[in-house]
Amino acid sequence: MKQKRKAGGFGYATDSIKETGKHATKTEFVSLRKNGFRITLDITKRRKMSRSPQFDKYDIAKYDLHPGYSFPDFLEDMIPSGTPEYVDSGQRYVERMIRALFFFKQCALIGPSGTGKTHITYLVAELTGLPVWEVNCGLQTSSYDLIGRFIGLGKENWIDGQVTSWLKYGGVLYLDEANMMKQDVATRLNPVLDTRGHLVLTEKDNELISRHRYAYVIISMNPFSAEFAGTKPLNAAFRRRMSVWVNFDYESIGEKISEREVELLIKRSKIDHATAYKITQVGAEMRRQYQAGDLPYGPSVGDLSHWAVLVVDGADPISAAEETIVALTSDSVEVQADVRRLIESVFKG
Question: Contact at 8 Å (CB) between 93 and 120?
Fold first, then answer.
């Protein structure tokens, strides 16, 4: 069957640059009644790129990712809100990611678990006012899950998958654990991520779906190594389609304790500075051991915050750790004992 290309199409940096300075508008209708007459006014308001209260903390105003366009109302709930700030030590991760999306439409995040790759993706989406289509690329995720399928008998009931919906409506497609992706999935995504910018639905009479003008991609993954079960080197063709790579690492690790992370812990939980510092010390040493292969998990700032919240509520730090950081790290009795000894050495030493 002959393929039909839909209106729109995919472009790169030049499209964004040409439209810099344009802003989406929203029309509101206001009715006034006076002396038996009704007057209806059309008021056109300029739409801000983002309603996030954190917007002005970052140098991103020049990178409007959907100038002159507002997403449909039914996608409103998919635009994140209330995402906590992301703390770094001058790496400017947020600005770099938004810049990459503005110029190249897609970027890759790489770093160990707990460094905030998913967190910052949601923050970027909130700051730029983009809905998020999230996909976990585990080994059980098939191309049918992403593209869509017919349900029931016949060909009347087609259900779009996450990728197909993203292509149609735009926003951020977030591919988590991308280096666990099955090969058939990566192959289907290749033409979507290059200058062709379309998907051919072979399952649906070869219907061609063009990539929405404001459809962006963020992939994230752990470094490929034996300790991350299921990971593998990213397909070379897929890898080349990621124009910008942003490397993440822990703020505090080993003996390096970031005061910014301590301050963030205080801000999130209202804990005192001395206890926040000790909790960060524990987290930093656990991360060092995790990277050395001695622990199965390195805690994120969020994990440490959960521990701190229980302490603020009245639990002593060691008891609170049992309910949070100790149980989180592993089911292994031996591993839990190692974490417990570490915690006691910091809080009782």
Answer: yes
User: What's the pLDDT tens digit per position in 212-255?
Assistant: 999 999 999 887 554 445 556 777 788 888 889 999 989 999 99
Q: Write out the two tokens for 239.
A: 């890898």
Report residue 90: phi and psi, to 5°: 95, 5
> Residue 173: in which H helix or E strand, if any?
strand 171-176
What is the DSSP code (8-state) at residue 256?
Answer: B
Q: Is 345 helix (H, G, I), strand (E, B) or coil?
A: helix
Enclosing H/E stretch for 120: helix 117-128
Task: Judge if pTM exceeds 0.70.
Answer: yes
Two structure tokens written together for 106: 């897609």
| Cα separation, 70 vs 50, whole angstroms | 11
DSSP 8-state code for residue 105 = S
Q: Considering only CA atoms, which of 261, 225, 230, 216 is closest in space to residue 121?
A: 216
Domain spans, the chain: 13-247, 259-347
Strands 215-221 and 171-176: parallel
Backbone angles phi, psi at 260, to 5 degrees: -65, -40
Those residues whose C-beta lies under 8 Å from the C-beta of residue 160, and which sit 6 or more positions away, are 148, 168
Q: How far is CA 294 from CA 186, 221, 230, in A?
A: 33, 21, 19
Task: Annotate 45-77 with DSSP letters as a single string.
Answer: EEPPS---TTGGGSS-TT--SSTT----GGGGG
Read off φ and ψ for residue 329, nearest 5 degrees. Answer: -65, -40
C-beta of residue 100 within 8 angstroms of C-beta of residue 246: yes
Residues 6+ apart with CB under 8 A from 106: 100, 193, 216, 217, 218, 219, 241, 242, 243
Q: Using alpha carbons, select from 61, 58, 66, 65 the residue that is nearest to residue 120.
A: 58
Q: How far apart are CA 136 and CA 100, in angstroms?
A: 22
Between the CA of residue 302 and those of 3, 36, 198, 239, 313, what are the distances in Å? 48, 60, 37, 30, 17
CATH 3.30.310.80: does it fit domain 13-247? no
Instruction: Render pLDDT for 144-190 as a digit per residue (tens, 0 to 9).
Output: 778 888 887 666 788 888 999 999 999 999 999 888 877 777 888 88
How many Cβ atoms sit within 10 Å of the Cβ of residue 199? 23
